[in-house]
Write a structure and sequence with these properties.
- The protein is an alpha/beta fold.
- The protein folds into 2 domains: 3-155 and 248-293, D-Maltodextrin-Binding Protein, domain 2 (3-Layer(aba) Sandwich), CATH 3.40.190.170; 158-245 and 296-351, 3-Layer(aba) Sandwich (D-Maltodextrin-Binding Protein, domain 2), CATH 3.40.190.170.
- It has 14 helices and 11 strands.
- The strands form 2 sheets. Strands 1, 2, 3, 4, 5, 8, 9, 10 and 11 form a 9-stranded mixed beta sheet that branches. It has a two-stranded parallel ribbon with strand order 6-7.
- α7 links the parallel β6 (177-181) and β7.
- α1 packs parallel to α2 and α6 (123-133) packs across α14.
- It starts with a helix and ends in a 12-residue tail after the last helix.
- Mean pLDDT is 85; it is low at 1-30.
């Protein structure tokens, strides 16, 4: 993806592949596993919106060279369209694929439901979630039919960005044009419910639509600010609300049905690598925070305390409604609630039993 997001997704690649690589983050050295007894040929579909010049793609090439030391031979395929990468993975043309967790939800409903509105209040809670999911008792959650999620990692908090800071409340968003992911029906449903106009978009074009005035409002991580030149869309009157709608994640999936017969100890290898990677959560999260801190202070706008409470309640109601409608997994909502209440035990939801 874009340069800074590529760094985040590159880290996820390092969680799933038994190799070390030179990336723009702290140097990580993974324990050296024994080479596979037989050659393993893997087709890896790498989504990088920056194409052949992207950081994910370049990292993937480095990892492919390292993987040969463990008797793993990777055929890399580059994609600049996430939808096409997902379709090829579904068709069995990829043994491994990198996708946003929202896109990955079609392959694993339970894990994909993590990116629900108001899923996590802060990055400390995000760390707790990652450590929780690394417990072996949750490993079955990652498997659905032939598909398996082998890694997730935060891309960052998703903030509302407006081209006019006078749009400082939900009520004032009525009638405004809002970019929504065209393949995620929950977003259009929520925006329409607020009286705003959903404009179908994708991660490849939502920034351009904001910058050229096709939409008035977008939701994006701060990591996208510079690479997508979102300051053009913000202009002199725009603002970014310091209120995370959710913490978004990226993911790596494999075709378990193809790899397990060739690697009988696949689960043990993955669990070992995932546990080892937990020690790098802190520097990784600090990298995301630094990128958020680099967004010029003039763009940030804080909500009124009463609005903060109101919007938290709104996000919670959205989770409840969408879960009842079958859009999100009730089991995942329960896990997320436990994580939230561990960090914010006095929150009203912690004394209720709707999630």
């Amino acid at each position: 993806m874009i340069k800074k997001i590529s760094i985040a997704l590159a880290f996820m690649l390092s969680l799933a592949v038994p190799a070390s690589a030179n990336v723009a983050m702290p140097a990580f050295t993974f324990p050296t596993p024994d080479p596979l007894p037989n050659p393993l040929n893997v087709r890896a579909c790498i989504f990088d919106i920056a194409g052949a010049q992207g950081q994910i793609w370049n990292l993937a090439k480095d990892l492919a060279l390292e993987a040969k030391k463990w008797n793993v031979h990777a055929e890399l395929r580059l994609y600049t369209d996430e939808r096409v990468a997902a379709e090829d993975y579904k068709a069995g043309q990829c043994d491994m694929v990198t996708l946003s967790l929202l896109r990955a939800k079609q392959f694993n409903f339970v894990v994909g439901s993590i990116d629900a509105p108001g899923n996590l209040p802060n990055y400390e809670a995000a760390k707790t979630l990652l450590r929780t999911l690394a417990n072996p008792q949750f490993s079955k959650m990652a498997i659905h039919g032939p598909y398996q999620v082998v890694a997730i990692a935060p891309i960052g908090s998703i903030f509302v960005m407006v081209n006019d800071r006078q749009i400082d409340s939900i009520e004032k968003a009525a009638g405004k044009r809002v970019a929504v992911l065209e393949w995620d029906r929950s977003q259009a449903k929520m925006i329409s419910g607020l009286g705003a106009q959903p404009v179908p978009s994708d991660i490849t074009n939502f920034g351009g639509k904001f910058n050229n005035g096709q939409v008035d409002i977008i939701a994006a991580p701060a990591l996208a600010f510079k690479p997508l030149e979102l300051y053009k869309g913000l202009g002199d009157k725009g603002a970014i609300f310091r209120f995370p709608l959710l913490i978004a994640h990226g993911s790596i999936l494999i075709r378990r049905d193809k790899l397990l017969p060739q690697v009988p100890d696949l689960d043990a290898r993955l669990l070992s690598l995932q546990r080892y990677a937990l020690q790098f959560i802190d520097p990784y999260i600090e990298m995301i925070k630094r990128q958020e801190a680099e967004v010029p202070a003039k763009y940030w706008m804080d909500l009124k305390p009463e609005d903060n409470i109101k919007y938290q309640s709104m996000l919670r109601q959205a989770r409840l409604t969408l879960t009842m409608e079958g859009i999100y997994s009730a089991a995942t909502m329960n896990i997320l609630k436990r994580v939230r209440c561990r960090h914010e035990p006095t929150n009203m939801e912690c004394s209720q039993h709707e999630e």
